[in-house]
Amino acid sequence: MNPLLAVNGVSKEYTKGNHRFQAVSGVDFAITRGETFGLIGESGSGKSTLGKMVTGLEPPTSGTITYEGNSLWNGNRFNRLKPGEMQIVFQDPQSSLDPRMRVQAIITEPLLALPAAERKEKGSKERLLALITRVGLKPDHLNRYPHEFSGGQRQRIAIARALITDPSFVVLDEPTSALDVSVQANVLNLLQELKRERNLTYLFISHNMAVIRYMCDRMAVMQKGRIVEIGHVNDIFVNPVDSYTKTLLSSLPQLHEKKEDIHV
Amino acid sequence: MLLEIHNLSVEFESMQDRVKALQAVSFSIDEGEIVGIVGESGSGKSVTALSILGLLEKNAHISTGSISYKGKNLLSLSKKDWQSLRGKEIGMVFQEPMTALHPTMRIGDQLAEVIHRHRSISYKEAYRQAVASLAEVQINDPELVARKYPFELSGGMRQRVVIALAMSAPPDLLIADEPTTALDVTIQHEVLKLMQELAQKRGTSIMLITHDLGVVAQVCQRVVVMYAGEVVETGTTQEVLHSPCHPYTKALIGALPDLAEQGQPLLAIPGESPDLRNRPDGCVFAPRCSCSLPICREDHPVLEPAVSGSLTHQVSCWGRNQ
Amino acid sequence: MSGTTLKTESLPAARSAKTVNPFWYKIRRNPLTLLGLFLLLLILLLSIFAPLISPYEPTKINIPERFAQPSADHWFGTDEVGRDIFTRILYGARLSLGVGVAVVVGAGVIGTIIGAVSGYFGGRIDQLIMRLMDIILAFPALVLAMAIAATLGPNLQNAMLAIAIIKIPVYVRLARAETLALREKLFVKAAVTFGIPSWRIIVRHIIPNALSPVIIQVTLDIGDAILLVATLGFLGLGAQPPTPEWGAMISIGWKYLLDYWWYPTFPGLALFLASCGFNLIGDGIRDILDPKANRS
Amino acid sequence: MRQIITKRLAMLVLVLFGVTLITFFLSHVIPGDPARMMVGQRASEETLQEVRRQLGLDQPVWVQYFTYMKGLLAGDFGDSIRTQQPVINDLITFFPATIELALTAFVIAIVIGIPIGILSAVKKDTGWDHAGRFFSIAGISTPVFWSGLVGILLFYKVFNLLPSSGRIDLMVTPPPTITGLFLVDSLLTGNWAAFSNSLWHLILPACTLAFAQLATVTRQVRASMLEVLGQDYIRTALANGIHGPVLLFRYALRNALIPTITVVGLSFGSLLGGAVVTETIFGWPGMGKYVVESIAFLDFPAIMGFTFVISLGYVIINLLVDLTYYALDPQIKE
């Protein structure tokens, strides 16, 4: 099966004055349709930079990124093959929603990039209402401003915005890192359900091992711009090969030594 | 008991609202003990910490309760007594290592200034001890680091410096407010270990504020679980994490993806955290509780032994015996 | 020590606080801002109803009554050709407030647009624009305004133009700085990933969000602009007599200061009160809106 | 550090080049004709053309600019139409008086402004704060020419305490020119009569000018002090037992002053602008009075020379401010 997204030999170098900084170096991986691919690493590992290159925010210095076989970057120009096909949900819902816009305007914003006919069809009132209810908000929330919502609700708004164009591929960049544990559970459940219902493919970027293990099929561990280990989630968790992966796993505070101990 | 908080309530006044941030909070910390205060945002855990240090904002006031430290009530202290207590008796480590240090003062000077204040020695001698204290928090080449500015250090290094600052007196109680939340997991691990070792060596008690149950499991002997400004459950780490009694604690553990099977939905808490301006008459958690009883909405539960006869494990829930 | 604890700890409560508008609450709590508001309203009403309040005409010459002392008939006395100074001050208020607001709002709009566009796209054009602004800012403001007004010819329009030119760079810099910060905000990045065209992002996201510091600056600048117009008038580079412009009135009146103290004193007082009104309000609004000044 | 200085110097040259361009072309889009001003309305067409040729006004604009620049680099600003003297000589004559006035005002504004700003911040929202803020806002809201007039009215006419104009009494011999600043020169030569007399003349104009500048200082000190006091590291210091003057001065004030330096440095420009008006009101024989008189004459060489010198001074001050800033803030190192 052909991969939906393929990243081949991608590097990213930032230059600031005389300093050069290699954020990503020679990264390869591929995501097949319908899977959730996890990208894990600590701060400065280059995982977020990769997310930016996939979504068109930063051009790679070298290497290619293809989506359905077509190259996404043509030099420094991003080829938006089909507007609305690929969407992103960011980490901080505090900053990812424009504080001066009402929820309705926020959610329908991605439609502005679509051709007029499609915009009208996808932006119909029924679809909007169905979507907002589906992510767990109420229709009368549409007229409110982001500051009137809690962190979890804001992230639901961000998810609704990402889904309004009916994308097939969604990049989730630390979508629950800014949320409380109980709220995180709600959002993760929602993301799981939506994926099943809409046949989505996820690129899930996170620093949280537990979240990656729970959400993803396959994963890549990044350290200092390189992928040090890649494979199925269960294999990596049970049998880590790379020493850095092992350190990561052993640093994770364990709630219980054995999970059978719990009596909920 | 080193620290005993009894029936502490704190209100914030803003505009014309009154926000009850803490509602009759009681717990205690013994000498040499590490106690975890666990809760989500808005649970009042940071407010509790700031109350102990007398650093609450002007618009906050303590409406009831007492905080007794080594037998004396902190709330009746004069401003001057507070100032001599801070740092010397009770130290504090804040969450953000990036902003907690003075940006244009060298590390050594920041430490020396504090040591100079607490130990009544010359500044020069204080500086020498400052360098030594950097070595104690396992910083390599402490002389060099002492001459650096905070922006030249990594997050983990900075948090070590913050810990060295807080431990410089050394205090008998260290309050650590989410000390590792801003750090990477691998560094978090080291910093927690460091705190644990230092506390053990000096006999310092630690009040560790965190939202992370994993951190609690790693370092704490006892846990206090807070929700919406109240203590809902308390006990030894073993008791609370292995046989949680309050529905909120149960949900908190169940919501963690750490233990969940892939494909199985996580145990989520429905609804939103309550409006702290209008506290319900009954249990604060009742509106979101999956097993609430009629009485839960009418009457406020109090902390009572979770299992009859238990001195340590206490829970504030009407349904604890069901 | 700040609102940090309050912010994180009482978020759910603050979220639904809709009963009282915090802006007006804070304005009401600050006596200085209230004073400014009162001053401005007073001047505005007096200037609007000038014909109803004063029986005199602002430019009508009445030689027999020249240099009349302040009295029940002429509250602020009369000038060297017998015009009622109070009346001239009332009509002058229309001019000063109107010109001050027009110049600053004009400079604010132009400067914000240039700054937002320049900052958003960056690159060479941005560098060029910023250097140009540096050059304008390399002149002390009043000196440049004087030079421009002097070369273009002394009249009110040129004075306004000169003041607008010296004010624009302030807004370009302000809007550019805001834009650079906003460009890093996730909601702008999100819009980029959706494929929204740049100009639309500028109009939808950048400018609305950059507006509050601009508005603060505008309020603070109006007071200054009123003074600048008057200063140019005083130096003979602005409105020309017999226009009842405050600065021009003082320009003639100060020669009579030692004998007829009221002549330059009252227009100056009016100038002070008007400028003070705007500055007090501007300062108050900044204290409320500017998160930097508002933390403690 | 050296890199920054080189870069800033390059900028300075660039900006000054721009300044000359603007002043020059401003003076050439004018409707007024300097040659006509010089010869008067009744002169013949031939005389007019002759004067034009002498002034080089018949040449293409870029040639004129080139000639002007060549002169400028050699310190030649052309001759004043009004005084018939080389502009540079005029400026040298009037420069020290302006500097003496501006510097004195600057020092007064800082010495009074910083404490008021600190007080306002520490006692935020109390009567102290309101009084301090009102005082400083009143300062920027008062037109310099008006506060000068009121000052003269009160201290000269009513109380007869201070002189109304000039730098020194006619009866007192001015000190010999060493720096050109009367206060300094009279001190250096031990001429106490001249010192006290010129100080007596300086008080009113300097205070008038300082009053207008005060707000810039107080506002900035108050705002940055408030910002710093709200920072996490101040809370850390408090929690570690630091308090009182050590907290205020060693921890807070230092950082609050870093942004203040920039703003205060920039405000020196408006101080120079204010000096123009102050000098006119108080008959202070400085560059400001000179340029106001030149404006009435459409004396462009004089106006341009003045503008250039003032801008040069301003740009140099800004450079010094930037360098101080780099020296004070260790976080900017490149």
Automatic annotation (TrEMBL), chain A:
SUPFAM superfamilies given in the database record: P-loop containing nucleoside triphosphate hydrolases (SSF52540)
GO biological process assignments: transmembrane transport
CDD domains, per database record: ABC_NikE_OppD_transporters
GO molecular function, one term: ATP hydrolysis activity
Domain (ABC transporter) ranges: 5-249
InterPro entries listed in its UniProt record: AAA+_ATPase, ABC_transp_ATP-bind, ABC_transporter-like_ATP-bd, ABC_transporter-like_CS, P-loop_NTPase
Pfam families named among the record's database cross-references: ABC_tran
Keyword Manganese recorded: no
Keywords carried by this UniProt record: ATP-binding, Nucleotide-binding, Transport
Name of the protein in its database record: ABC transporter ATP-binding protein
UniProt organism field: Brevibacillus panacihumi
Taxonomic lineage of the native organism: Bacteria, Bacillati, Bacillota, Bacilli, Bacillales
From TrEMBL, chain B:
Top-rank taxon: Bacteria
ABC transporter domain segment(s): 3-253
Gene Ontology molecular-function annotations: ATP binding; ATP hydrolysis activity
Entries under InterPro entries matching the protein: AAA+_ATPase (IPR003593), ABC_Ni/Peptide_Import (IPR050388), ABC_transporter-like_ATP-bd (IPR003439), ABC_transporter-like_CS (IPR017871), Oligopep_ABC_C (IPR013563), P-loop_NTPase (IPR027417)
UniProt-listed Gene3D superfamilies: P-loop containing nucleotide triphosphate hydrolases
Keyword Membrane set for record: yes
CDD domains (alphabetical): ABC_NikE_OppD_transporters
Record carries keyword Amino-acid biosynthesis: no
Cellular compartment(s): Cell membrane
GO cellular component, one term: plasma membrane
Similarity comment text for this entry: Belongs to the ABC transporter superfamily.
Name the UniProt record assigns to this protein: ABC transporter ATP-binding protein
Species this chain originates from: Brevibacillus panacihumi
TrEMBL record, chain D:
Keyword Transmembrane listed: yes
Pfam families in alphabetical order: BPD_transp_1, BPD_transp_1_N
Stretches assigned to the ABC transmembrane type-1 domain: 95-325
Protein's cellular compartments: Cell membrane
One cellular component (GO) term of this entry: plasma membrane
Source superkingdom: Bacteria
Keyword match Transmembrane helix: yes
Coiled-coil zones: none
TM regions (residue ranges): 9-30, 101-122, 134-156, 198-217, 256-282, 302-328
Membrane topology term: Multi-pass membrane protein
N-terminal signal peptide: none
Main location: membrane
MF (Gene Ontology): dipeptide transmembrane transporter activity
Keywords on record: Cell membrane, Membrane, Transmembrane, Transmembrane helix, Transport
Family statement drawn from the similarity comment of this UniProt entry: Belongs to the binding-protein-dependent transport system permease family.
Protein name, per record: Peptide ABC transporter permease
Taxonomic lineage: Bacteria, Bacillati, Bacillota, Bacilli, Bacillales
